[in-house]
Amino acid sequence: MRSSVVQNSKLLFENKIINHLKKKTMKKLNLIAVAFLLSASLFGQSNKEDIDLIQSIFGKEKKEVVKQYMTLPDAQSAKFWSLYDAYETERKKLGHERVKLIEDYATKYEKLDSKTATDLTTKKLAWVSKYTAFQQKYLTKFSAIIGGLQASKFIQLEDYIENCIRLMIQEEIPFIGELDKSKAPGQNP
Length: 189
Description:
- There is one protein chain.
- This protein is mainly alpha-helical.
- It has one domain (about 5-175).
- The protein has helices at about 5-20, 25-45, 50-60, 60-70, 75-110, 115-145, 150-170, 180.
- The termini are far apart.
């Protein structure tokens, strides 16, 4: 059974999605805004944008969500948080790679051809594989210090958070050809 933290977070997220869908504006502008927001976090001194995104979903910083969800004995806590910090550093690097992919898509969207679309999709799928390998590596590391059940619990929470973020990003990115369909016949791109 999920903890009340995750249930409340899910309800908050669902409400945000419903509100988002009601207020949806032109996706092309949103794509540019998302690329800008994500690139700002890539080059910024802090992870403020990353924190803001997590807070917009859960109402608090990610580490606080993890602290509330994970119930660790004191003997495991220090080792867990030390490994968690290393995990977050590596996860953020992967996040920067995702930002670059989104920026590349945003830059090339207007003149997307078959080869470019295939290249971008191949890069995206390679990123997903890399992210999965990253999670597998840390599942092994966390299992060694907090046991398989707790490590799986942590990865499950990470998947939930990652999927929430992916959904929020995907909602802002137009599908290939979507903007062309919304134009009146004879209208220029």
